[in-house]
Amino acid sequence: MTVMSIKPRGEIGLEKHDKGDQFIRVEKGKARVVMGKSKDKMTFDKRISDDWAIFIPEGFWHNIINEGDKPLKVYVIYGPPEHPAGTLHKTFEESEAAHSH
User: Fold this and answer.
1) What's the average model confidence in pLDDT over 81-96?
2) Can you tell me whether residue 56 is helix, strand or coil?
3) Which helix (H) or strand (E) holds 18?
4) Which of 34, 69, 75, 100 has the fewest CB atoms found within 10 Å of its own CB?
5) pTM
6) Is the pLDDT of residue 29 over 80?
7) Per CATH, is 2-98 categorized as 2.60.120.10?
């Protein structure tokens, strides 16, 4: 599981996971979720907020964008796990440096 705080108008960045699905839940905030089988054609575009959840199938390109003026609080469950047990990245930049897409 990963816990994230995304700054206002920030985003996770367009990405795709080829080795598992993702379950993303918004604890607090307003977000836009886009996804599709091709990074050039996002066929899903939905605004979500507090207590919403979204399922991202393996192999789908996706992005989560904070559309609010406060930090977006989300958690992500990966199946199978994305990171080894005990992994901790205090910032988005640390996570990006340690993770190859």
Assistant:
1) 77
2) strand
3) none
4) 100
5) 0.78
6) yes
7) yes
